[in-house]
Amino acid sequence: MKAISLGPTPGPIRCTTPQDVRRRVAGPSLRHVQSLVRKMLQQWGRRRRERAELARLDDRMLRDIGITCGDVWQEINKPFWRQ
Q: Residues near 59 by Cβ (< 8 Å), separated by ≥ 6?
């Protein structure tokens, strides 16, 4: 039986430390999760404000931007978490 050489290893062998293992197992940090929650809340607030502003537009303004009253009704009746 012939031995097949796979060639030299591509780099130095690195030992895994317990800290490396903990970092990988722990998942996202608390700071990262807080950042995601903050961004989500900001986005929800922005949607709420934009829909409220859209509801205040009159028919002439809606014609100017090319949307109908039905489009407005559909948009302003969405829950804040929906795009």
A: 69
